[in-house]
Amino acid sequence: MTNSAFRRVPNALALAAVMLVAATLLVACGDRGGTEGAPAPGDTAVAKVDGKTVWASDVKREAVAQGLIGEGEPLDVSSDLFRRVLDEVVDQKLLAAEALNRKLDKDPVAQKRLAAARERILGDMLVESVVADAVNDNAIRGLYQEQLKLAKQSEEIRARQIVVATEAEAEAVRKLLATGASFDALAMERSTDAATRFNGGDLGYFTVDVMPEAYAANLKTSKVGDIVGPFGIEGGWAILKIEDRRLEQPITFEAARPQIVRFLTYDQVRDLLEKLRSRAKVQTLIGAPQDVPGQPKEPADAPKTAPQTPATKAAPAASAAPAKAAQP
């Protein structure tokens, strides 16, 4: 398996929600009777439409298709959301039944659309089957451990800051700190940085590489307990107090798990489609698209690299007063 998680997601996965909607439509259009047994153990009958049962699973499937809940999330049958979606499922079944009464399903265009929806549903079921087999707990934990081994632990700093408008104000604050004034109290009283002043200037833990250049330059050689500055920043002057220095904490397995699952899922779907295309004879009968001046271009596929789970981090854009970092 290749580590190309951030390449463009294959259409089969991107169309999952559309497939679920199509599945509901096909069931409604094709339900001319049939068994009244529960589709799955524990399923609950929640309504009848002209004698045909609507199951709790039908309502949950529609809620997932609309993005109201995630796949596998519970949906309480007594909730307002369930009742609202149930009404929509009933309406959908009534519309589909009326379409059958009018023989709209015999229309050639309708038959093509139903056939296309069937293909999407079957493709989605294949994708779910392949992913369920490959994206298991062992694979997820294995990739997590692999990324931990590759991770480079940078040093994190925890600091507090006071930001003021002028150098003279900054020097006055520095003198007050030298006489024993409370840094937290001065931050709340004098700092102009709204994001940190009410927390006593606390920036949380951060790595130097994500900080604006002026901060990074003054923090590199600082020690715990140091008062750093004042130094000029964009929009004012800053004074820092160094609270702690430690090795960066790796991301936990539970926090990394969703991203790893996405990576493994995309990778499996991409590999499946590549194998299917290699065995099939696919002919494109239209010419290549022509460039139109000013037209947005589709982004290129990302390089074949491992996912940025515990190993790497994204650096936020620098600002005059850096955003509050994650707390321990």
UniProtKB/TrEMBL annotation:
The keyword S-adenosyl-L-methionine does not apply. Residues 1-27 form the signal peptide. Residues 286-328 are annotated as: Disordered. PROSITE patterns: PPIC_PPIASE_1 (PS01096), PPIC_PPIASE_2 (PS50198), PROKAR_LIPOPROTEIN (PS51257). It catalyses: [protein]-peptidylproline (omega=180) = [protein]-peptidylproline (omega=0). GO terms for molecular function: peptidyl-prolyl cis-trans isomerase activity. The keyword Membrane does not apply. Its EC number is 5.2.1.8. InterPro entries: PPIase_dom_sf (IPR046357), PPIase_PpiC (IPR000297), PPIase_PpiC_CS (IPR023058), PrsA_foldase (IPR050245), Trigger_fact/SurA_dom_sf (IPR027304). Pfam families: Rotamase (PF00639). Keywords: Isomerase, Rotamase, Signal. Residues 302-328 have a biased composition (Low complexity). Gene3D superfamilies: 1.10.8.1040, 3.10.50.40. SUPFAM superfamilies: FKBP-like, Triger factor/SurA peptide-binding domain-like. Residues 154-244 form the PpiC domain. Belongs to the PpiC/parvulin rotamase family. This is Parvulin-like PPIase. It comes from Phenylobacterium haematophilum.
